[in-house]
Amino acid sequence: MKIVVIGSVAAGTSVAAKARRNDETAEIVVYESGEDISYSVCGMPYFLGGEVDSVDTLIPRNAQWFKKRFDFDIHTGHHVKAIHPSVKEIEVYNKKEGKGFRETFDKLVLATGSYSLAPSPFSLDSYSNIFHVKSMADTKAIDAYMKQNDTKHVTVVGSGFIGLEMTEQLTEKGMNVTVVELASQVFPKIDPDMAYHIEKKLKDKGVKLHLSDKVQTIEGSGKAAVLTTDKGADIETDLVILAVGVRPNTFLTTNTDIELGQTGAIKVNDYMETSVKDVFAVGDVAESFHRVTGKPIYHPLGSTANKMGRIAGDHITGGKLSFKGTLGTGIVRLFDLTVGYTGLSQAEAKTAGFDPVVIHNIKPAHAQYVGGQNLIIKAVADRKTGRFLGAQIVGSEGVDKRIDVFATAITFEANAEELFDLDLAYAPPFSTTKDPVIYTGMVLENAREQLPVMTPEELISKQNSGEKLQVIDVRSSKQYEKNHVDDAINIPMPALRKGAGELDKSLPTVVYCNKGVTSNTAQNLLLNIGFKQVYVLSGGNTNFRYYKEM
Questions:
Q1: How far apart are CA 205 and CA 209, in angstroms?
Q2: Boundaries of each Rhodanese domain copy (predicted)?
């Protein structure tokens, strides 16, 4: 059996390595258009910022290493121009020798990855200081440019993963960074109220933001010197990083019967098989599906690519591995802030047919008496079944630990109440007695059953529409005087049992404290003495302040 793989970054080399582990007799050949293989795309910003000393650290293996370890050939500098599945041949162009040839295969794997977008008016050919951060060649070119030119002002277009990472690294390197984002918020992958914390951190670090805006024109000869936006801002720049997203590199499917999916990536089944027999697709070029909804999604990420490659290599050589889908889990560091997310947001849950209940949980990552800092957790569950659907977290520590626990829980279809049953590690330097994960499950289940919550957005909407509510601030009078929700009445928790007699039990009532713990006690008290509808303000006054600032 002859296996031919096109592409050798994350997915392609995983295919070949797994196939060889399963089968010593197979002939395995890999073609790569570039010169570097199996490199870390995700590590590129950290080299450019100086956190990684050498670019070679991001290229741990070369073709010779794979030949010695697994006995298969990787041909770099070989561009595959076309594929012909009907006759099981591909057309290859050897860039070093300047000549082409045909190669046969029994099994073909497309691991051609994705390509970066360059929207108008940007042109990498016309301006020497506009770059993508997609390949190792891009990284080396940016590094060389910064060393050879006086680079003080950088413009980053787009605020996804690469955009934020490049912003962090170049700011830490001492450059003045401006971010231009077409959406109305930074990092559009998460909800606006959570993205606000990213925006605040960027501003605190001196990063200039242009939201709901785009670059319209470029001034400069050979180099982009001034970018003018739709809103009329003139941005002086020495370097431009384009980070507006990627698209699957499906060029080789042209004039074939290989089907593309709803997302524009190649449609595959659970074994990475395409619609054409003996042709597979893996990594950024392949479509995946969401583990909760079962619907197609495009999730280009190195970890997913590696997993897909291993599955394809296993299936080709008689194995039983299959792809179980993705939750779209992601994480990014921004200075001393970490942002993580997994599963469905409130809007996505609603679109998928669930009746979502949403809570905000603000808890320290570990005991405050040993320096624990707050995590802000926004979590979603299905009101009817209690199924835990998703979470987003912002904090300075412990985000990765909790988001991975949440992702595991969603993977095994846990209910919100089952988060409470988890036996998580506890000691004051690492957690709290009720870990933020456990507390999230408690609050979600309470909100789903008999102790509802109301988000700041919902409360403000109801107040603005003139709906009759009574809002009770159960904090101390000193805290109330410092700031409070509009039209809130201050009845400190110790006085609530007596003070409740002055309230209208028939009116919808919202109670709040600083972060939600004391208000839950107040909610129980009021319900127990006959109040009809009592809500806890989700995340308390702390979360309300964040929302108002946003």
A1: 11
A2: 465-549
